[in-house]
Amino acid sequence: MKRRSQLAVNIAGIGDLILASKSLRALKRSHPEMKLWLLTSSEAAMLAEHFPYIDRVVPFPIRESRRDRRHLWRMWQIVRELRRIDFRYCTNLYLVGSRLGALKMGLLFSLLRSDLKAGHAAFGFGWFLTHKAHSETFSRQHYVDAMCDIAALTGATPDDQGLDVFWDRACESQWAPFFDEQKGLLIGVNPGGDRANRRWDPAGFAETAGNLLNAYRAKILLLGSPAETTIAGDIERRLGSELVVNLSGRMNLHELCYIISRLDLLLTNDSGPMHIAAATGTPVVGIFGPENPAHLRPYAEEDRYRAVYRDVPCRPCLKSSCKNPICLASITPVEVFQACTELIQATKKKSSS
User: Fold this and answer.
1) 145 contact partners, CB below 8 Å, separation of at least 6
2) The whole model's pTM is what?
3) Do residues 88 and 3 touch, judged by C-beta distance below 8 A?
């Protein structure tokens, strides 16, 4: 019997799902006769369920297992269920960044059934693959293009479009009236992020937002997860303006996507919301710390983003914490405000032409 399914693996965060959207689209577009399965993290799965070209989403509780070992049993059950399926292709889209990561992914791929196993041949992961992307695939280009190169190992051809993000449209009815009544610029500020060493100083965000308030009388929406309400609350207190609306902890993931899509500008750390903005076409200023912006900048037209960063000798850095984060500490509110101003002016010029 002809195998009718292919499996894409992208066990990473929400931003990484969006970065993978172009390669996922290529896999489905190039192999329309096959159902496209996606094995991804539980948090990314919430959005992936709404991607029209993904036929089945398998949530993998990788982060949950770090907090509660009981999730390891569920992970094993998922692998056993996948092992029963004879996939035509198994493709690991994301980079392999360490020997331990290669060993874990290698164990998974050794248990999957497929004649073609494709991925990033780094740190020994190539031993588990039949079709291999060079170890430097991710270090020499943007991650979106690197993932497309991996998808191409299955014969997939990417289109010339950008990134995608899809959400549950039912959430829009709650928020649409708020946006419909707004006048003037609406600027989102996202001061949080999964990793503390990717977060710029909240005082810098506050000063930049204050300058935007004074220059444009813009309304500022503070964004963030329930775990980031303290950061957003600190910025709200520093600004002390009725034009500031603190939405941190008050949105689910689908609502966050819709809110970002309605903004005139998003100011954010290097994070998932930055990639959501790129996918929705919202102009975005991304502040980069330890990661290389050449690899992870917003994947959008040049007049739709600015990446603010400092060239430092220790980038890229894989540490979870840093005693001397010069990459972020040396970025000033003046240059971030300048980047925001450039985008605002570019957007005005484009809309008037």
Assistant:
1) none
2) 0.95
3) yes
- Write the DSSP symbol of residue 172: H
Looking up tokens 């405000």 gives: 337
Measured in whole angstroms, the distance separating CA 11 from the mean position of its chain's CA atoms is: 12
The percent helix, strand, coil of the chain (3-state, each to 5) is 45, 15, 35
* Two tokens, residue 251: 């949105």
Q: Hey, what are 173's tokens?
A: 């009815």
CA dist 158 and 93 (Å) reads: 14
Tens place of pLDDT for every residue, the chain, 353 residues? 356 899 999 999 999 999 999 999 999 999 999 999 999 999 999 999 999 999 999 999 988 888 888 889 999 999 999 999 999 999 999 999 999 999 999 999 999 999 999 999 999 999 999 999 999 999 999 999 999 999 999 999 999 999 999 999 999 999 999 999 888 899 999 999 888 888 999 999 999 999 999 999 999 999 999 999 999 999 999 999 999 999 999 999 999 999 999 999 999 999 999 999 999 999 999 999 999 999 999 999 999 999 999 988 888 877 777 788 899 999 999 999 999 999 999 988 777 66
Identity at 309, one-letter amino acid code: Y
For residue 200, what is the DSSP state? Answer: P
DSSP lists the bridge partners of residue 9 as 39, 92
Q: Which amino acid is at 193?
A: G
Q: Which residues contact 65 (CB under 8 A, 6 or more apart)?
A: 71, 72, 75
Closest CA to 236 of 191, 270, 293: 191
Nearest by Cα to 169 from 26, 22, 52: 52
Question: What's the one-letter identity of residue 106?
Answer: G
Domains and CATH numbers, the chain: 5-152 (3.40.50.2000), 169-352 (3.40.50.2000)
